[in-house]
Design goal:
The chain has about 130 residues and is an alpha+beta fold. It contains 3 helices and 4 strands; from the N terminus they run ββαααββ. The longest helix is centred in the last third of the chain and has 28 residues.
């Protein structure tokens, strides 16, 4: 098993100039990213989403975990989750459309205690 590691990916985009050409200085465009001009790669955002929704690790706990000397604020993680949700909206819409075409829908009615805001008690929630 190889533990996860954070790496800095350096993208070199040299500028080329041609005195004989009309374009002047030419540089290759930056590669498209999930968050324009942002630091995280798609893999980093996917890791945050999997940790939050599959491993049930809330963002405040992810923010407290400092690995390899990297501290990421909870508000930054929340922004990444929101941007990923925006990009995944077409997938969500396609799934809803497919579900609505179905003649039968089934759901899991597994109960779980959920905090009831303001009453300091829990109420029955469903997965």
């Amino acid at each position: 098993m190889i533990p996860a590691q954070f790496r800095v990916i350096v993208t070199r985009r040299p500028k080329y100039a041609c005195r004989a050409c009309a374009d002047g200085v030419v540089q290759a465009p930056a590669p498209a990213r999930l968050i324009q001009a942002g630091l995280p790669t798609e893999a980093t955002v996917a890791h945050v989403l999997v940790s939050k929704y599959t491993d049930h690790l809330p963002l405040y706990l992810q923010a407290q975990i400092s690995r390899q000397g990297i501290d990421i604020d909870r508000s930054t993680l929340a922004d990444w989750v929101g941007r990923a949700a925006f990009e995944l909206r077409p997938v969500f819409d396609a799934l809803i459309t497919e579900l609505k075409r179905s003649t039968k829908l089934f759901m899991d009615e597994t109960r779980a205690p959920v905090l009831d805001p303001g009453s300091r008690k829990t109420k029955a929630g469903y997965f």
